[in-house]
Automatic annotation (TrEMBL):
Any one GO MF annotation of this record: monooxygenase activity
The entry's keywords: Monooxygenase, Oxidoreductase
A Pfam family the protein falls into: Trp_halogenase
Domain of life where this protein originates: Bacteria
Full protein name: Tryptophan halogenase
SUPFAM superfamilies: FAD/NAD(P)-binding domain
InterPro entries tied to this protein: FAD/NAD-bd_sf, Flavin-dep_Halogenase_NPB, Flavin_halogenase
Homology family: Belongs to the flavin-dependent halogenase family. Bacterial tryptophan halogenase subfamily.
Amino acid sequence: MTDITETDVVVVGGGPGGSTVATLVARQGHRAVLLEKERFPRYQIGESLLPSTVQGVCRLLGVSEELKEAGFPVKRGGTFRWGSNPEPWTFDFGISPQFAGTAAPAYQVERMKFDQILLNNAMRNGVDVHEEHTVTDVIEENGRVCGVSCTDAAGVRREFRGRYVVDASGNLSRIHSRVGGKRQYSEYFRNLALFGYFTGGKRMPAPTSGNILAVAFSAGWFWYIPLSDELTSVGAVVHREALDRVQGDREQALNELIAECPMIADFLSDAQRVTSGPYGEIRVRKDYSYIQEKFSRPGLVLVGDAAGFIDPVFSSGVHLATYGGLLVARSLNTALRPTTESGMDEKTLFEEYEARYRQEYMRFHDFLVSFYDMHSDEESYFWKAKRVTGNTASELQSFVSLVGGGSSDERALVNAGSYGDRQDVEEAIWSVAQAGANIQVQAATGGTIDEQVPVRDGGLVPSADGMHWALPATAAA
Ligand code: FAD
């Protein structure tokens, strides 16, 4: 007989997207089960984080201290040898009032450590985590998804049934297609990435030593991410036509690409490639730029890479996964209330998530299309960021706000403070303090940080505690 577990929410996948949803749902007193195929720590790419994740969602999750203690390199911004300017140029997250005033706006992280911190935190918050459980399919009844079937480490088939299933199982998700519709692959971003790890690579001088370095060259561009004083993540992103080149000897292909890019060759001139352990492999990733046509159906919702990813150049993946996780948690927390308010049915709640997520995705997408035009210089990239975001602040501030993950003006992403922590005690103090902070940020960025204004006609707004959706004041009156 199949072993069946009943719960409120079944989350598939323990990456940043899955851990975020599960934690924020469990903290509202709902039962959440998280099923993860691997045993953590497990390898994952996606090491350069944005302030919106570190200052925003991670604060809401309550892991700021742990991140600080983990000793990850502080990422103050980015340094780019990109576009028509032959010299490298640098931006600092601190130029945006949204991210100013903090010693550590973001981090470069070993995902094995970062994802473990988020998963442990989910467990501490009451999520029932099962590692080495591979989800094989969803279970449907009367057109509604009501659970998943999976295989545990011993090969035993189990079922987990819940009122909602969240697919956060990443780009290799087996169940995303069960939502209906297709994965729409980008016509524009058809690149592939070849990457490995080095010890002994050079560092930029302080205070930019923790920055991501992105260097364009004839075949594409390189990322160079310091993961510790010793360890560096190095990857080449090249056009898909170079597939043949990387399909043979990967080591040779990576070495040849490095030799074609003088700045990266210089940074690695005294470095050794790591050849053993989780960082010992040279990996290839392709077909990673896509968005799902639909994000939800009754009982099932996609989050993180299961829903979409664009391109690694501005490190938006974990931001989209954790922001999406927060939005989905709001939808589920609202749907799981004992009574459903009029105008807050499941379809509307999922639509709110999807509308906000797509808006954020498209901002990055549209900006990135211009950013790949190598005939422009940084001033035109900044101008484009201002146009894409509709921001009235300076071009540079608009650019930094966008690439820091703050262009949605969600206070949960730019200044989460004690928003999700100790809500009941600090709520009142927080609202007053935040109202002041919002006015300052709004004045400086020209953004619309008034969260009582929905982002679309008939849309919802975040509730006062930031963990649910609410009707805007005019609609509720
Ligand atoms: P994941 O992190 O992929 O987690 C999904 C989890 O689901 C995994 O733990 C997996 O084991 C589990 N799982 C899978 N299938 C099953 C199953 N059947 N049953 C149970 N569990 C399952 N992002 C950044 O923010 N910064 C970067 O610098 C960056 N660089 C990148 C470079 C490249 C080349 C690429 C391709 C991506 C990069 N990204 C970057 C994107 C980043 O890797 C992802 O966006 C991010 O990891 C998405 O998080 P997630 O939680 O959605 O999925």
